[in-house]
Structure formats: C-alpha cells, structure tokens
Amino acid sequence: MVYEPKAGFIGTAQGINIRRFDTNGASTDWIAKNQAEAAINDQLNTMDGRYVPTVLNVPKYETRDAQGLPQEKTPVFNDGDAGKTPASPSTTNPVKFVKADGTTTDDTRVPALSNGQEIGRFEVEPSTGKITFKPNKNFVGTVDPVSVQMLDGKGIPHQAVYQPKVTPVRPSAQDASSEGIQGAVQTGQLTFNPGNNRVPIDSKKLPTFDNGSQTKTLAGVGTYQVDNQGLVTFTPLLTYTGRPAAETIKRVDVNGTEVTATYQADVKAAAPSATNAETSGIQGQVQQGKVSFIEGSAQVNGQKQTVVFPAGSTPLFDNGSTVKEVPTVGKFEVDEDGNVTFTPEKQFKGLTPEIRITRTDTNGSTATAIYKATVTAVTPTGTNITSTGKARPSTDR
After folding, report:
1. What is the pLDDT of residues 327-369, one digit of tens each?
2. CA distance 272 to 144
3. Whose CA is closest to 270, among 226, 248, 243, 240?
4. What is the β-pairing status of strands 258-268 and 176-181?
5. What is the value of pTM for the model shown?
6. Three-class SS string for 145-182?
7. Which of 30, 37, 277, 296 could hold 289 in an S-S bridge, CB 3.0 to 4.6 Å?
C-alpha cells in the first residue's frame, strides 16, 4: 500500500478496508465460528485487511558551523507541538536512526551524505537522543537530513529530523618583500592567518616552497630558506643583481586547506669603479701617478650602503703582483693607496703600454684602472770652441 497524504495533513487517517479473493471466488469476508479465530478487521469484524496510516509531525532541527568542526543537536520529541509534553529517551526507550526504507537501525553511527556522497558521519546517544555530526575536513555545504525515532512507553513512535550546514573556512596570508645591496643576505616575514580561530594553521605542517621543501636553490640566483614561523631568508650569489621571480610559500590549516604567500627579493647592483692615471717625464726619470678605486654603493630602503674592499687588500697588476716589469720599458710598482711608481729603462722613450691595475671587493667584483706614462727623449748636445794666440819668444842664447 502507498499512502500519499495531502500537503499539511498531520495525524491518523481514517484508514481503508482491504478484501481479497482467491481463484475459487472465496474472499476474506468471513469470521470463524464460535470465534475460534479472532477477526482481523476491527471495523467490519471480518478477516478483511485494514490499513490505517499515521502522519507524524516531524520537527526539523538545523545547525550551522565552520568547516571541519563537529556539530551537535539534541532534538525534542514533541511531534512539533510546543505545548505537548515531549517523550523522553532512555535506555529502555532509545533513540535510533531511521534508514531510507523507514525502518530503524541499532547502529549508533551512520554515514553522513550530501547529494548522495559520503562526507562524514552522524552519531547518536540512544539514551539522550543527542546527535553529533562529524564532517570530513574538506567538506562545505548542506548535509542531507538524517531522521531519528524513538518509541514512547505506549509504543507510539516520535521522530525528528536533523540537518547541519557547513560554512567554508579560508585561511589568508600576507606577502613579504625586501631589498638589499649586492651580496647581502635579505629576510622577509610572511604571515599566515587562520580563517577561523577554532581552525588554526596546522603547526605540524611546516611552510614549504613549491618544491615541497623549506629550502630552494636557484642556479645563478641564490638560496631561499623559510623557517617554521614563516621568516624567509634569501642568500644571493655574490655576483647576482636584479629582481628575481617571486617565490611562493605554502601552509595549510588543520582542515588541510592550503594558503600561499609570496616573497619578493630585490638585489641592488654595487660594482666598484676606478679612475685611470697618466704621467710624463724625461728619459731616465722616475715617474709617479695615482689610480683611484671607488667602492660600489647603492640606495637600499632610502639609505646608502657600500660593498667594501677587503681590509689589507691592495691593487694588483695583471700578473697578480704589486710589481710588474716590462722588458725594454721599465718597472711598475703600486701600493695599497693606488700610487704607481714607474722606473723606466735608461734607453726607453715614448709611450708605455697600457698597464692594467685591478682591485676586488668582498663580493669578488673587480674594478680596473689603466696607467700610462710618456717618456720624452733626452739627447745630449755640444758647443764648438775656437781660440787664437801669439808664439812665445825663445829664450835660448
């Protein structure tokens, strides 16, 4: 039998009588003689069947909470009538889940579904009727309702429906950036915020780069590291300058929901420079000149920063020494201040080759200065002299 009540009807219907006939034409319209067998139909006092449906007023309860959090509700079994004394669950009148076919089950745990897909589970305390919904961490949305039922002391059923809803939790993050002079280590502090204070960032899952590690090295650029608090340290190669692509760092909350932040570094170029020197003098004369080396600098966060030359370092010729001798030309010497002394060969005159002098800073960047000398030839000259005189008288006798 299928009964389709009118919308809004609650209560017990009048019911119908059902009479069946067999192939001999005999029906259920009979009664046992001397009441040897009790009548089935109490309306007709016959063996005819009778169907009396009851439509319960089933109250519906709803809860709403954040993603990943359990929800619970204890229904009141008053058939939706606030003025009615509710039936009280107990160990002898337990609350049970109602299956899809309308029958109850003794299982105190059943799958929770959404659009027919399992997304968690429901649990019920039979003696109190409290229903707990435990969602899967990744579920958001409306859960398919679950029905529970209890029988009171008279065997009358009372039902309730429970339907939780799960709102999404989305963690957020703040990016970080930094700038520094060439060769300097830079840092930036990323911030990861929970989408709900009851759904914190998972402290057991550490922040990682897109390679799944807390360290990432880029060829030709440098190395990035991120610590457990989201502090990114960037160690650029000493030769690198520029603005590399931003790096992405990921974290998850306790639901497993991902959140990313980016770190952008900027390395300001600071190459050293040099000024050349030229001198001139006459052949055979020692000459002195001075080349200058200027440390590389850059503006970092509005302040000038400098890459220094190593303490105690000196400029060097291309032979790696502070002294260079050029055959038939002469000897060149340079001191720590860039003073160049040129001692020419006695016979040398004219323009010397370009003498390269370099100095290297702490990043390994090198500046080159050129020293040239001109030697003017010196040619000795003489003046002719003539004289006249008288012969001396002889004294011989």
Report:
1. 999 999 999 999 999 999 999 999 999 999 999 999 999 999 9
2. 71
3. 240
4. parallel
5. 0.78
6. CEEEEEECCCCCEEEEEEEEEEECCCCEEECEEEEEEC
7. 277
